[in-house]
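Hey, quick one: can you model this chain's 3D structure?
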Amino acid sequence: MTEEQWDTLGKYRFHASTAAVQGVDASTFCDGDEMREYLSHRLSLIGTDDLKVAASLFMKRYAFVAAMGLMAMTYWNKKLNLTPENLILVDEDKNGLWMPHFHLKDASVTEFSSLEEKNEFIQSLFRGHLDRVIQSLKKATKLSNLILWENIAVYVFWIFENDDFLMNVGMRHRRDDQFQALLSDENLQWFGRYRTNPMAKYYSRKVNVEGVMDMVRVRKTCCFSYKLKDGEQYRCKTCPQTCLVKKT
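Sure thing. Here's the predicted structure for all 248 residues.
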């Protein structure tokens, strides 16, 4: 990839380093007991004493794995190795908030050669990685996977609705077709053992909300950001607790 593309991934919390980094192997997050221990040791760092709040905030941060992988695939036709075994989560802080970054042990990149290869990548990203983390969090904290999937969905939707990366009309068509495939029940095998698409239920029309300049897609579940220490300042502008009573 180009230097500019790597810099773009850096904005989505990619941790570029040629030296050894200190962090936690992502394979840890695929085991419920290890996940519970991990979250328990980071409650103060995350800013809560509630494991369910910590689990939701963890998934909001971890969802950037999907954002990085889908961005590189959709706009640059580039394939990153985002398997749990290749990923290290590195603790970082931004404006007092826990904002971990992602380091790839093997940062080599290849190009996709077919639609089938892209479909296989999507399945490895969601079913082979993120759904395993979701099930681990659910086992460790009893948090509903509805919240966890929406924490991923909001960033996936943003990637596919962002026109900043578009270069031509053909790319727009390919992007929109890929987005529709992600929302289709015909591709349930991409996500795990579900009867309906676990992301599609969160895709709704955007609405006007009092006090918010742009139209927003109101969340169906609450991510608990407001429960963090001094959390009201971190409450999402799409929070269902406030938006549903302010829609205009």
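One thing worth noting: Residues 204-248 form one domain.
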